[in-house]
Structures are given as structure tokens and as C-alpha cells.
UniProtKB/TrEMBL annotation:
InterPro entries registered for this protein in UniProt: PI-PLC_domain, PLC-like_Pdiesterase_TIM-brl, PLipase_C_PInositol-sp_X_dom
Domain of life: Eukaryota
Gene3D superfamilies (alphabetical): Phosphatidylinositol (PI) phosphodiesterase (3.20.20.190)
Record's signal peptide: 1-18
UniProt protein name: PLC-like phosphodiesterase
Molecular function terms, GO-annotated: phosphoric diester hydrolase activity
Limits of the Phosphatidylinositol-specific phospholipase C X domain: 30-167
Organism: Anaeromyces robustus
Pfam family, any one: PI-PLC-X
Keyword match Signal: yes
Lineage of the organism: Eukaryota, Fungi, Fungi incertae sedis, Chytridiomycota, Chytridiomycota incertae sedis
Length: 315
């Protein structure tokens, strides 16, 4: 059973906790009224982990304190204490969580949002040093071991560990990029992970609200309709359904729209139970959506690991 084969991962994206605007860097670019543009959740990393979220869209940049920090575009992410959120803190929070939940797995999907090339190299070097440290502590899956960069690990290989996915070359992770199809209601099929797998992705973040809902539903229906669940073919597929939208398209904030989509999903009971739904990526991920996703997962019976999440969450 591979980790990517499970339908149990609820995603959360972009940034962590409360956020604020770094007045030094961005004074002239943004103002307070644009906060709704960038904030995509209101729980800290720890709270998200405790709510069942196991995937994080982590965007890194170089901070003047010479440490890698987390951003969403030009906005700095903050931790639960309102301080700059550094990558090292994300790793520590994940590692602490795994120490007390050692059958769980956390995926960090990394990219860089930093324009300066010299500083990009600094980000990559420091992140890879951090990764090394956690590999030594046995809290991190080692992609540099054997052929690990080109294959999807089994769940047993990554229990109690962080798995790094990389959206750009350079990071010591499994390279998994996301196709640029931001305004197409149809999901896209690409070859991925060194062409060893098929990626089915819906990431039309530029669509209007009703078209976006159509795009989301199309991919859900594909998964609902697949009758041969667990076939050899599906083992070689990674399915990612992004619910995320871009604020500027709507009058509503990301928060309003993401709650609307989540309600559509849960109240509309869109996920047929016992199917392989792939990864569902949502903004403002919380316990309700995580619970719903887990419970409709084909592997909810506990055979392959999702039961672990349910057990400690005590749903
Ligand atoms: C996050 O937002 C939701 C929806 O507005 C709200 O119910 C919840 O209390 C908020 N949580 C925190 C920690 O701010
Ligand atoms: C690179 O990062 C440093 C902070 O460490 C900053 O002072 C410098 O302006 C950055 N360079 C560019 C071109 O952004
Ligand atoms: C897939 O499911 C949807 C809704 O559940 C249905 O409308 C559609 O006809 C199905 N498609 C196929 C090819 O079975």
C-alpha cells in the first residue's frame, strides 16, 4: 500500500496560522485590506495536525535573519504566537507530533516564493541541511536512498516520518510538480515522478465559483465511477483535487468560498464511500472536512492505515 494510494489525506495549503504583513519589505505593495487575498486557513500547524490534516503546501523564502521562513506570495506567515514562521519550526512541530503519533505520516510539499536567485540557493541549501538532520533522527523519509526519488513509498516505510515532496528541482524530495491549468474545468493527466506514475490533477484556481465547482465535481465523479478500485492501474496514479481558488476573481473572500465548497462536499455528500478519492486539497481545512474525507475513504475500515488517524481523533 503506497501513501499516495490512500484517499485519506486532507490538504491544507499556503500558509499557517495568523498572518501579518511585514512592513519592512512590503509597505508599498500591499495594505491591510488585501489580507483576505492571502490567508488560507486559521489554524496553526499543530492544530491542523490534531485536526487530521496531513499535507501542507509549504512556500519558502529567505528571511533577513538568514533563515528560511514560510510565505504566501509576498505575505509572511506567522506562527501561533504571531512570530515569523520559520521552516525549522514547521519541521519541529511535525516531528513532535510524530513522536506521539508514530503510525502517522506527514507530507510537506515545498516550493520557493523568492525572486532573487542567490537567495533561492540559500533557501535550498538550508532546507536540505534541515532535511538531512531529520533523516539522521529517523523522522524523515530519505529520498536519497536507492531509487526512492522515483517511487512512491509504502505507508509502512513512512510511518512516523515526514515525506518531502518538491514542486521544484533542488530540494531533497520526491519531485511532484503541478501542471499550470488554472482556468480549465477539465482535470489534466500528466506523467509524473520521473514518468513512473500518472498524475490526475485539478487545480483550476482561476475559475469562477460555479465553474470551479464543476471542475471539482468532474474529478470526484471520475473517482466515484472507477469500479476497479485497487487495480494495478490505480496504484500507478496520483489524483489531486484542489478546492483552492484565487480571491481576486470573486467578491467573496477565500474563507467564504472555501466554506461554501466544503459544505457542498459534505452536505451534498459528494464522495461515495469506499472509493479512492485521491487527495482533497482545501483551504481552511478543519476537523469536519478531514473527518468526512477519512470516513468516505476506501481504506476507512483500517486495513491500510487510515484507521490510525480516526482512532486518535476519536471521531
Ligand atoms: C476559524 O474560522 C472558523 C470559521 O469562521 C471559526 O469557526 C473558527 O472559530 C476559527 N478558528 C480560529 C482558531 O480562529
Ligand atoms: C537576499 O536576502 C537578504 C537577507 O538575507 C536581503 O538582504 C537581500 O536583499 C536579498 N536579496 C535580494 C536581491 O532580494
Ligand atoms: C459518473 O458519475 C456521474 C455522477 O455520479 C454520472 O453522471 C456519469 O454519467 C458517470 N460517468 C460514467 C462514465 O459512468
Amino acid at each position: 500500500m503506497s501513501i499516495f494510494f490512500l484517499a485519506l489525506l486532507s490538504f491544507n495549503s499556503f500558509k499557517n496560522g495568523a498572518f501579518n504583513i511585514n512592513p519592512e519589505n512590503h509597505q508599498n505593495i500591499i495594505d491591510g485590506s488585501r489580507t483576505a487575498y492571502a490567508q488560507t486557513q486559521n489554524l496553526s500547524i499543530k492544530e491542523q495536525l490534531n485536526s487530521g490534516i496531513r499535507y501542507f503546501d509549504i512556500r519558502t523564502a529567505w528571511h533577513s535573519s538568514k533563515k528560511v521562513h514560510i510565505v504566501h506570495n509576498i505575505i509572511d506567515c506567522m506562527d501561533e504566537d504571531g512570530k515569523t514562521l520559520f521552516f525549522s519550526k514547521v519541521l519541529k512541530d511535525c516531528s513532535d507530533f510524530l513522536s506521539s503519533h508514530n503510525s502517522e505520516t506527514i507530507i510537506l510539499h515545498l516550493t520557493i516564493q523568492e525572486n532573487n536567485e542567490a537567495n533561492q540557493s540559500l533557501v535550498i541549501d538550508q532546507v536540505n541541511n534541515n532535511i538531512d538532520e531529520y533523516i539522521k533522527n529517523k523522522k524523515m523519509y530519505n529520498v536519497n536512498d536507492g531509487n526512492n526519488k522515483n517511487r512512491i513509498p509504502t505507508l509502512n516505510e513512512v510511518r512516523g516520518k515526514i515525506v518531502i515532496l518538491s514542486r521544484r528541482y533542488g530540494f531533497d524530495g520526491i519531485y511532484l510538480t503541478i501542471p499550470e491549468e488554472s482556468d480549465d474545468v477539465n482535470y489534466v493527466e500528466t506523467e509524473c515522478i520521473n514518468k513512473n506514475y500518472k498524475c490526475i490533477t485539478q487545480d483550476a484556481y482561476k475559475l469562477g465559483e460555479s465553474s470551479k465547482l464543476k471542475a471539482i465535481t468532474k474529478l470526484i465523479n471520475r473517482q466515484n465511477n472507477l469500479s476497479e478500485q485497487g487495480s494495478e492501474n490505480l496504484k500507478m496514479e496520483i489524483v489531486i483535487n484542489f478546492f483552492n481558488i484565487e480571491y481576486s476573481i470573486f467578491g467573496d473572500s477565500i474563507k467564504t468560498v472555501s466554506y461554501h465548497f466544503k459544505n457542498e462536499l459534505i452536505d451534498g455528500n459528494k464522495l461515495t464511500p469506499n472509493k479512492q478519492h485521491g487527495w482533497i486539497v482545501v483551504d481552511y481545512a478543519d476537523k469536519d472536512i478531514a473527518s468526512y474525507i477519512y470516513k468516505t475513504n476506501k481504506f476507512y475500515d483500517g486495513r491500510c492505515g487510515s484507521k490510525n488517524v480516526i482512532d486518535f481523533l476519536n471521531y
